[in-house]
Amino acid sequence: QAVANAQRALATIDTDLVVPVNTRPDSIEPYKKFLRASALAIVGTIQYRREQYPEAEATLRQAVDLDPANADGVIVLRLALALDQQKKYQEALQQANRAVELTKEDTEAGRLARNERGRLTALLAQNSAPGASDVVPASNDSPPGQ
After folding, report:
1. CA triple 73-135-133, angle to 5 deg
2. Of 24 and 136, the one with more pLDDT
């Protein structure tokens, strides 16, 4: 039901959004961008939980790309985890680094982002060593909201 609701929101945001009379016109588009990113983040999170990692990656990228300057650290972390699950470790590390930048160290999201970054850094270092194996178990930590 959550996916259906999010998809409906995406389809109708331009036609069904009720804007209060005194709303500044320049604040409407940023709000629509926020709503779109939120709906995409919901869909991407559900795809991740269903282990549909390529779909989750694409959807979460869309959510982040809607407003990269105001990206949500939790969404970026989920993107890193979706990439990690597909063994796209270098890309996952880039997103994990970004998630670390966007989250506070003393929060659950911040702790998870830093753990993921550390795990990916170690994995990539291990894989660059001669005779290294690319099999490293994924973190047991779940991203926030799971």
Report:
1. 125
2. 24
